[in-house]
Amino acid sequence: MRKNFLWYNFIRLGVVRTGLKFFYKRIRIIDKHKIPKGKPILLVPNHQNSFMDALLVTTHFYKTTSFLTRAQAFESKFMDWFLRSLNLLPVYRVRDGMSNIQKNNEIFETCINYLSNNEAVLVFAEANHDLKRRLRPFSKGFTRIAFDAEIKNNWNLDLYVQPVGVNYSDHQNSRNEVRVVFGDPIKVSDYKKEYEQDERSAANSLKNQTSENLKPLIMHVPKLDQYPLIKIALDEMEPDRAKLANNQYMNQLVEYAEELRTPELISDAEYVIEVSEKNNLSIRTLADVKLPMVKRILLAPIYLLVWLNGIIPYQPARFIIKNKIKDKAFDVSIKFVLGLFLFP
Asked: Which 3 state secondary structure label does DSSP give 179?
């Protein structure tokens, strides 16, 4: 048992998990039974919504879990202590300086030790986040951790790579539905023979298999050039936002939309998105179906009460998001953290 076990689980389960239940309208956990019991696990989720992805996975996973995040967050001594106390580890990128890249060797070794102790490690194989509803190409970093962990244990570790899909009905706002879907796990030792013959080939095979197992777990638009059309037709124009968190339903619609696509429709969609972004217009708001006037009048007192109750605590988040945060993927994370610690 780690020294920070009680502190880590108090924050993870007592604070963050409780906060997530209030922040989101509904959190559904699908196929959790697929997680191998009593085995070390390398979690590989998709990465769309900043650190909300990691919070939603680790708070609904039974093992002590460490996860890698950008080294920039560890710059101050306090944040370095605080994040490490919650099992976060820094991972360095080229933008952090070539001299710092070598520090990843030590971090990877730490991950290997945790896995060797039958714990779990979470790695975002896409390397960075993106709000687009699709799975992007994987880097090979997680395969290095997986194979090195097995080699250190003479291929007897029985390590599994566990794909996880995180689906949001709305990325940037609270009181929406989230669906966390666990996929078919991959046994790393199954690649032993291939690894001993060709390490690069084995890394590519594990990377590609993990990607293929993960794609059905999320709404995935395969072709990037078609994304503007899919975004408008299946995302912005969808009146029932909860359906967007249903990966199976949305992937059926994606396949159907791909059959009906034309170059003209794609071009028109690109133009609509360009105009909306240039003029700061919300396609969803313009397409939204309004409540009948009678219902709007009857519900007005409730709307007013909710607005008055939230106007003061929402102002810090609104100011930071509007003036300090350029990456929209951080919007909901800022709202959650400020709501969790400033206005519990």
From this structure: strand
Do 5 and 12 form a contact (C-beta atoms < 8 A)?
no
CA pair distance 2, 279, nearest whole angstrom: 52
Question: SS3 sequence, 216-274?
Answer: HHCCCCCCHHHHHHHHHHHHHCCCCHHHHHCHHHHHHHHHHHHHHCCHHHHHHHHHHHH
Specify the amino acid at residue 30: I
| Helix 331-341 and helix 293-323, axial crossing angle in degrees, nearest 10 | 90
Give pLDDT tens digits along the chain (344 positions).
788 999 999 999 999 999 999 999 999 999 999 999 999 999 999 999 988 999 999 999 999 999 998 888 898 899 999 999 999 999 988 777 777 888 899 999 999 999 999 999 999 999 889 999 999 999 999 999 999 999 999 999 999 999 999 999 998 888 899 999 999 999 999 999 999 999 999 999 999 999 999 999 999 999 999 999 999 888 888 888 899 999 999 999 999 888 888 889 999 889 888 888 888 877 777 666 555 555 556 555 655 555 555 555 555 655 555 555 565 656 677 777 777 766 55
Q: Radius of gyration (Cα) for the chain, nearest Å? A: 22
For the chain, which residues make up each domain, given as ranges? 5-216, 224-285, 291-341
Q: Which two tokens stand for residue 285?
A: 């708001």
What type of residue sits at position 275?
V
Residue 305 CA: distances (Å) to CA of 19, 113, 290, 299, 310: 22, 52, 20, 10, 9
CA distance 211 to 227: 19
Classify domain 5-216 by CATH architecture.
3-Layer(aba) Sandwich (3.40)
Q: Which amino acid is at 47?
A: H
**Which of these, 231, 257, 228, 226, lies nearest to 244 by C-alpha position?**
231
Residue 47, SS3? coil
